[in-house]
Amino acid sequence: MKGTKLFDSVTGEQFYIKGVAYQPRSNGNSDVLADVNACTRDAKILKELGANTIRVYEVYPENNHDACMAALEREGIYLMLDLPIPRKSIDRNAPRYSVEILNHYKATVDAFGKYPNLLGLIAGNEVTNDIRTTEASAHIKAVLRDTKAYIAQRGWKIPVGYADNDDPAIRKNIQDYFNCGTKEERADFYGINVYSWCGESNFVQSGYKDRTAELQDYNVPVLLTEYGCNVTPTRPFNEIQSLYGNDMQDVFSGGFIYEYSNESNNYGLVKINGNNVEKLKDFYTVQSQFSKINPKKTSIRECPAKKPSRQCPKVSESWKSNAKLPPTPSEEACRCAYRSLECRINKAATLPENGQTVGEQLGFICQYDVCGDVASDWKNGTYGRFSTCDATVVNSIIFNIAYKDGTACDFKGMAEKVAPTGDINLCTARH
Fold first, then answer.
1. Is there a contact between 252 and 243 (Cβ–Cβ < 8 Å)?
2. What does the alpha-carbon distance between residue 73 and residue 67 come to, in Å, rounded to a whole number?
3. pLDDT for the residue numbered 5
4. pLDDT reading at 384 higher than 70
5. Shortest CA distance to 235 belongs to which of 271, 266, 204?
6. What's the domain of life for this entry (predicted)?
């Protein structure tokens, strides 16, 4: 990667992503890169399609992915990998960045950083998707920052970016936000998921011309991280010629068609039934469109001078994420704080059926403005010293605050007294 372009590291020639979203769900396997038979079969079909990259949305680092990654590599196919998974991701409606999330991101980096065909990582997909959820972006940018730092610590060069849903109300603010601040905080590439080119549309009518103009001054590579509107029975995919032609090639480095397998939402290029793969009409349309593209390619030596990054958007009612990001979670500091508590949540409090009871107790305590140590203020950019600890530690700290203020350590059966083994005030420096 250099400037706004991707390059072949051997030849120095510009590289365009001809990608497909790949997350078959009909077999019930959430980690598709651990399914050796399926990905070996599909790698050949993806090559036949003309793809050179897949985007995968969910993997589990404890699984073995060697065979699948090798099968993709044999067919010349790269991987763009989303880092979050359910329950280990930033919740747009109640954003919190925790030790647990960062540890999952690190484990995924460790699991996939060794593969030569890992093209990049996506720190978040459509997390902030409207004005109501803009505060979540500060947390996504923090985990992006810390993932980049961990990759550098491991001695690898793996770009980490963000994929946006392209909501008109926040479009400019979110583009600016992920491209402002220090280099360590900024996204290495920026993706937009766009479904506005529907049927026999064109570059202007679809809005693609406007999206291209808005990003022509961006200083990192830009991608269509999802595209392929399916409001018509069959998709002509004429946007492929614009994406890899004169209309967009100077700004975009390619993109990902949504999606490989036909699921309940009916976007698939193929239909999977057991071990059988049926190529649908859209498969042959994409194959034909890919065969006709010949994007202009520059060399890494001719890459233009670097463009400046953008200014962070001002905090307002329509943008609630401050430029100041949450701190890097410290597992040591959180463990230290937990050991210092006399009143902690008990096993019953961790059961899903007791979530409402626990929430009501925590809300009652925090209404008195005593929970600053675990609170986050996205608008002002202030974060409690233990705000990035996991839920067990955070909830225990809140119960302990009320206990110290004279409330019995019970909280409707959700807490228990223990013998502390430290002083919470000594944990701050480690955070």
1. yes
2. 10
3. 95
4. yes
5. 266
6. Eukaryota
SS3 of 258-291 = CCCECCCCCCCCEEEECCEEEECHHHHHHHHHHH
Q: Which residues are catalytic?
A: 126, 226
Q: What is the radius of gyration, based on Cα positions, of the chain?
A: 24
- Asked if pLDDT for residue 60 goes beyond 50, the answer is yes
DSSP line for 127-146: SS-SGGGTTHHHHHHHHHHH
Give the Cα separation of 322 and 380 in Å (integer). 6
Distance separating alpha carbons of residues 282 and 286, to the nearest angstrom: 6
- DSSP-assigned beta bridge partners for residue 255: 18, 224
**Residue 17 in 3-state DSSP?**
strand
- For residue 136, the one-letter residue type is A
Q: How confident is the model at residue 431 (pLDDT cuts 50, 70, 90)?
A: very low
**Amino acid making up residue 100:** E
423 residue type, one letter: D
If residue 226 lies in a helix (H) or strand (E), which one and from where to where? strand 222-227
| Mean per-residue pLDDT, 208-227 | 97
- Report the alpha-carbon distance of residue 225 to residue 64 in Å, rounded: 26
Question: pLDDT tens digits, residue range 42-56?
Answer: 999 999 999 999 999
Q: Is the confidence at residue 154, as pLDDT, over 90? A: yes
Spell out a b/e string for 367-386, using b for 16 or more CB atoms within 10 Å of the CB, else e: eeeebbbbbbbbbeeebbbb
Q: How confident is the model at residue 422 (pLDDT cuts 50, 70, 90)?
A: confident
**Model confidence at 260: pLDDT above 50:** yes
What is the DSSP code (8-state) at residue 368?
T
Angstrom CA distances, 307 to 3, 175, 219, 390, stand at: 7, 15, 5, 39
Residue 28 has pLDDT above 70, yes or no: no
Its pTM stands at 0.92
DSSP assignment of 154-177 equals HT----EEEEE---TTTHHHHHHH
Which uninterrupted H or E stretch holds 255? strand 252-257
